[in-house]
Amino acid sequence: MSTNYSNVNNMNTKNFFENVRLVNDIRGVKGYTGFYKGEKVSVMASGMGMPTIGIYSYELYNFFGVDNILRVGSTGALQEQVKVRDIVFGMGACTNSNYASQYDLAGTFAPIASYPLLKEAIVQAEKLNATYHVGNVLSSDSFYTDNGTAANEGWKKMGVLCVEMEAAGLYMNAARAGKNALAILTVSDHMI
Predict the structure, then answer these.
(1) pTM metric for this prediction
(2) Residue 12: which residues within 8 A CB-CB, separation 6 or more?
(3) How many CB atoms neighbour CB 25 within 10 A?
(4) Given pLDDT bands bounded at 50, 70 and 90, which one contains residue 143?
(5) Alpha helices, DSSP H, located in the chain
(6) CA geometry: angle at 85 spanning 95 and 49, to 5°?
(7) Among 99, 107, 71, 82, residue whose Cα is nearest residue 185
(8) CB 151 within 8 A of CB 160
(9) Which of 136, 128, 140, 130 has its CA nearest to residue 166?
(10) What is the pLDDT of residue 110?
(11) Do the Cβ atoms of 168 and 93 come closer than 8 Å?
């Protein structure tokens, strides 16, 4: 089956990129590369959840020479001061996942963002006068749970800002590959 990508310049990518082209369509996830203000940038979906972002980020870091991955996505707030439409920079990523077990560590690994990316994101947010928060996020393996909001109470008590589904896996892959990662999240709803 072939797909006609001749209309790629009619997609939203043209609002930001110059000379955009499709560079990936593996597993039905499209990736585009173009130039933004003279810098070569690639954008692609990461799927949903740690297994999916785990596959894509692993391949990007280890097979395609990518050094920096920014996960831009949505999140549900866990703290009162975090409002809908605020931005959250995931400094650390707690998880209820078993993703780290693959590394056969003798303890608990604490997945964190790459400081240079985090620092630059904060600088840019300050320039834009954006409302943002920096701290721990929860990367959850489940979207719907049997115990509903009660599952989030412990994380809320520990000061975790929000819940999403990918950052911990991304941060672990970045650490293992010696590369950089940052989750930049927009609060789409409130979990409490």
Answers:
(1) 0.88
(2) none
(3) 12
(4) confident
(5) 50-63, 115-127, 150-157, 167-177
(6) 30
(7) 71
(8) no
(9) 140
(10) 97
(11) yes
Residue 149, token pair as written in the block: 């909001």
Radius of gyration of the chain (CA): 17
State the Cα–Cα distance between residues 97 and 183, nearest whole angstrom.
17
* Average pLDDT value over all residues in the chain: 89
Q: Which of 86, 141, 146, 189 is catalytic?
A: 189
Residue that wins the pLDDT comparison between 78 and 148 = 78
Q: Can 189 be counted among the known catalytic residues?
A: yes
Residue-wise pLDDT for 53-92, tens only, equals 999 999 999 998 999 999 999 999 999 999 999 999 999 9
Q: Quote the distance between the C-alpha of residue 91 and its chain's center.
A: 12
Burial of 190 (0-12, 13-18, 19+ CB in 10 A): middle
Euclidean distance between CA atoms 65 and 56, whole angstroms: 12
How many angstroms separate the Cα of 28 from the Cα of each of 11, 20, 34?
A: 17, 18, 19
Contact (Cβ atoms closer than 8 angstroms) between residue 182 and residue 114? yes
